[in-house]
Structure formats: C-alpha cells, structure tokens
Design brief:
CATH superfamily: lambda repressor-like DNA-binding domains
Distance between the termini: 29 Å
Largest sheet: none
Radius of gyration: 13 Å
Number of domains: 1
CATH topology: 434 Repressor (Amino-terminal Domain)
Order of helices and strands: HHHHH
Number of helices: 5
Length: 88
C-alpha cells in the first residue's frame, strides 16, 4: 500500500498539535507521559517536534488523557483555531 504524502497544511496542523502537546507536558517526565498514553517516549518526541504530523486518533486520545488536556484543545490546535485562516 502506498501512502499519500501529507499536504503542507496537514504538516502544519501536526506541528501545531505537537507544540500543544509539548506545552501541555510542561516539563513532566516524557517517559511517564508516554507510558500513560500507551506510546513510546520516541513516538511522543516525534509528535512534539512535528516529525509525526498525523498521529492516530487513539494516540491523541491517550496523550490528552495522560496530560489532562481536553480533547477539544487538540482539535482546535489541529484546525488552527485562533490563527488567521486562509481561504482556499
């Protein structure tokens, strides 16, 4: 199966989500957060730095739960709510 490359906007959305996760973690131990979310610390690191711009829904749910972060905040970050939107 061939993966379709992500669009530039999808990459930016993943970067916004990663920044939110990194900020929400606020210095807490990444290994502890990753374990609680059911992912590896390496996966958490990749999400936070934007190298995994399209994590699975289950991963996002797990991270929100581990961080005490409302899922709506992750949705808003993904959509860029609060940022200037450009019509296509």
């Amino acid at each position: 199966m061939v993966r379709v490359p992500l669009s530039p906007e999808q990459v930016r959305a993943g970067q916004r989500l990663g920044a939110l996760i990194r900020t929400a973690r606020a210095g807490r131990d990444p290994e502890m957060i990753a374990r609680h979310a059911g992912i590896s610390p390496e996966t958490l690191r990749k999400i936070e730095v934007g190298r995994m711009p399209s994590p699975s829904f289950g991963t996002v749910i797990g991270l929100c739960d581990a961080l005490g972060l409302p899922l709506q905040d992750a949705v808003d970050a993904w959509h860029g709510n609060g940022e200037r939107q450009v019509a296509i």
